[in-house]
Design a protein that fits this description.
mainly alpha; two-stranded antiparallel ribbon; 19 helices; about 75% helix
Length: about 475
């Protein structure tokens, strides 16, 4: 009977989103934040791994919701990210008459992401995956400008193309791909058909995760989307692609079965190339939000690289990177939005003295930058170290090349983030500026995310043990 609770994290945000968008109440931001908080609280009602809810569509297809360790992890991550972005948007969109539309679609996107996290088979996952793309499309289109329309079309086009590739893989995979995620798969030799099926699924889902050559939507969409939307697109919505890769790799085809195969080699090569290329493009980019977008392209492929090692240690490191990338990238885009909203700056060169103009926001920006680079005590160091250690343990040439690229990427990350911090706090002699810091609705989410990155970085044992338990069940 408790299995009915599995629907709550999906229905609550959708109901709140429809109410806000259709009724357009004056306090839509508060109602939306309450909806996001209630969605997060509802996770406690469906965290029991024994719960499952299934509706038969046809004889061979079913709509299945099921909670397992991966589900609960992504549910919590998504809930925190959306709650922070919605609270921040209260100040960012203050006075905007169209804000109920933004809050409505944001909440419905939250519902779709909760659904794909709870999906118990690939059919249910794919349904919510497509819903998420369609519902998040208006978040990019929000301003209604010509650039926003073009960017929204690019975002939707890449989303549809990637989903189509994944669908082809699902159909090619047949019964093996249609299995419930909870059904164990033993060790077996995958035929060429199943290897191609997996590769199509992995490449299709990697589009949402920003892996090249399907990453162009990120630097196109972020500069025109509102800052809360950019934060969610980069820090949270991209994780839908990561979750798709995790489900198809470890729950449908089996990591042990894929080790040493052609798809593993292809995905390793593409992820390593993306890590380096994304960092180089971010280093050269002068537009702040576009620099952060290219940074996401690089940092998300750290996760894919860790997953493609096909080991328990690699999976644990990848999940750690999911957490700390989400905290850092949601936070960095929210900081960028505060700079743009209050100081009307868009380019990196315009951020000189920002540590004096907006000290609270700049302090948070510094914390997120240090975490993304991988400097202790912030959590980014732990995740990158774990991935590098897993690659060295594997010992293959590609894995060792990957470690070298990780180190080069870390240096490039420092190169495109630390100068912003340095110029922000040390603008030069005689620099005078009026202090214009953000309000509490903007500052509180930044400090919450920074605290998570710092606390989990200093005391990672609890979350690492959870990820080790998840990995142990799959290997």
């Amino acid at each position: 009977m408790n299995s009915i609770f599995l629907i709550l994290p999906i229905l609550i945000p959708v109901a709140f989103g429809l109410f806000v968008m259709l009724r357009r109440p004056k306090n839509s931001s508060i109602i939306s934040f309450v909806g996001a908080v209630l969605t997060g609280l509802s996770i406690f009602l469906c965290a029991d791994a024994n719960q499952a809810l299934e509706f038969t569509v046809t004889g061979s297809l079913s709509f299945l919701l099921h909670a397992d360790g991966i589900s609960v992890f992504f549910l919590c991550l998504i809930a925190v990210g959306f709650a922070c972005a919605i609270l921040y948007a209260r100040e960012y969109l203050q006075g905007d008459q169209r804000s109920p539309v933004f809050f409505g679609f944001t909440l419905m996107t939250l519902g779709a992401m909760m659904g794909l996290s709870l999906a118990g088979n690939i059919v249910t996952f794919y349904m919510f995956y497509e819903m998420m793309s369609l519902l998040s499309f208006p978040m990019v289109l929000y301003s209604g400008s010509e650039k926003a329309r073009r960017a929204a079309i690019v975002y939707l086009g890449f989303s549809v193309f990637g989903a189509s590739m994944a669908l082809m893989g699902i159909l090619l995979g047949g019964d093996l791909a249609m299995r419930a995620f909870s059904e164990p798969i033993g060790e077996t030799v995958l035929s060429a058909k199943y290897q191609w099926a997996y590769l199509l699924m992995a490449l299709g889902f990697s589009c949402k995760a920003g892996m090249m050559p399907l990453a162009n939507w990120l630097p196109t969409a972020h500069p025109v989307a509102p800052a809360p939307a950019s934060a969610l697109l980069s820090g949270i919505i991209t994780k839908a692609g990561i979750l798709g890769i995790i489900r198809s790799t470890f729950y449908l085809f089996g990591g042990a079965n894929l080790a040493g195969t052609m798809p593993q080699t292809v995905m390793l090569v593409l992820s390593i190339a993306t890590i380096f290329a994304g960092s180089m493009l971010a280093y050269k980019e002068k537009l702040l939000k576009k620099r952060l977008a290219y940074s996401s392209v690089s940092q998300l492929s750290y996760v894919i690289f860790g997953l493609m090692l096909m080991s328990a240690e690699g999976l644990s490191g990848a999940l750690l990177q999911v957490v700390f990338h989400a905290c850092a990238k949601v936070g960095l885009f929210l900081c960028a939005g505060a700079f743009i909203h209050h100081c009307h700056v868009n380019y990196v060169d315009e951020l000189t003295g920002m540590g004096r103009r907006m000290p609270k926001v700049m302090a948070a920006f510094t914390c997120f930058s240090l975490s993304l680079i991988g400097i202790p005590p912030f959590g980014g160091f732990i995740s990158k170290f774990q991935i590098a250690a897993a690659a060295l343990d594997q010992g293959t040439v590609l894995a060792q090349i990957g470690v070298i690229v990780l180190m080069v990427s870390a240096l490039l990350t420092a190169g495109y983030l630390l100068p912003i911090v340095a110029r922000g706090y040390f603008p030069g002699e005689g620099y005078k500026v009026k202090k214009t810091d953000a309000g509490m609705a903007m500052v509180v989410p930044l400090f919450v995310l920074a605290a998570i990155a710092a606390v989990l970085g200093m005391f990672p044992q609890g979350i690492m043990s959870c990820f080790s338990a998840i990995s142990a069940n799959l290997f």
